[in-house]
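pls read this stuff:
=====
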Amino acid sequence: MFGCLVAGRLVQTAAQQVAEDKFVFDLPDYESINHVVVFMLGTIPFPEGMGGSVYFSYPDSNGMPVWQLLGFVTNGKPSAIFKISGLKSGEGSQHPFGAMNIVRTPSVAQIGISVELLDSMAQQTPVGNAAVSSVDSFTQFTQKMLDNFYNFASSFAVSQAQMTPSPSEMFIPANVVLKWYEAFSVSNIKAFYN
């Protein structure tokens, strides 16, 4: 029913069902994770009037789980990206996983999904700094992507004297890539996506 994705790791689609309406994903080496994506697989929709509250749990200094509400997924919003890097030192909140005996190890955090009524979900307040969906972060990502592309393409640059004739390959002068890069500034990125 659910999937979980962390950059640089395989997609997890086999959530551990800990109750009829509760699921968890393990996140080993959670200290190195900045963002996590939670999504519905599209195979089973939520029942009418239901959705999923998404929680993050990490062990505190005593090894006890600290649960924090990240946000929600619903049939109308089947995926969400959450920033968890700043949450590892925050306070816990009320959560539906308290009475569960969930097997865990000290270096493993968890994402928990609790199937709940949409009305009760609307009354809950997620941790403030877990949301990621701002235009500024997308602009920053795009700028970093462009920087990376330019650096990568430039790393293959050779002078004309160093070139070996190869009639089957096409070459693009590095200054053309640089002109494109400079023309495609942050203001152009914002204008393109607005």
In short: Strands lie at 2-5, 16-19, 22-28, 35-40, 50-59, 65-73, 79-83, 108-117.
